[in-house]
Backbone:
């Protein structure tokens, strides 16, 4: 039996019976295929100041609309209050007219004289005036300092 080491023909290359590829005299260059282009990423640059400006504008629009609604509410309330004030003035005028016509001044004077009222021209009047106590003003610290300086340089 042959040992493995004795078999050396395996290491050599032999063509064998395989058909060789024929080389042509004129070489045709291989067609170059276009390289697939990379799709460009669409980048949208966002300016934070612009976004902040849009947010502020939206908030201002909302507050302006709220202000307009509030203005219309207050305008309606003003109309209601003006009509209410006019009703109160009319009622006050009617009550004042009723008050003036409800009493007879001569009858009231007769009743007052009968109860002991004295007319004003018969009463002795005495004028009394009171003098408020005069408080001495204490000079402030600046006034004392000024007085000290004027005395020092005089």
Residues:
């Amino acid at each position: 039996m042959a040992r493995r080491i004795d078999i050396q023909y395996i290491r050599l290359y032999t063509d064998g019976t395989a058909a060789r590829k024929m080389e042509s005299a004129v070489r045709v260059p291989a067609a170059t295929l276009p390289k697939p282009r990379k799709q460009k990423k669409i980048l949208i640059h966002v300016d934070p100041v612009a976004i902040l400006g849009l947010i502020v504008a939206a908030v201002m629009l909302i507050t302006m609309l709220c202000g307009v609604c509030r203005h219309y509410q207050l305008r309606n309330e003003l109309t209601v209050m003006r009509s209410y004030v006019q009703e109160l003035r009319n009622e006050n005028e009617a009550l004042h007219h009723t008050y003036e016509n409800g009493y007879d001044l001569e009858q009231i004077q007769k009743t007052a004289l009968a109860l002991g009222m004295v007319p004003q021209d018969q009463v002795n009047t005495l004028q009394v005036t009171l003098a408020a106590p005069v408080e001495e003003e204490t000079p402030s610290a600046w006034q004392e300092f000024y007085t000290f300086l004027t005395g020092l340089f005089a």
User: Anything to note?
Assistant: The helical segments are 48-102, 105-115, 141-153. The first helix runs from residue 48 to 102. The mean pLDDT is 85. The radius of gyration is 59 Å.
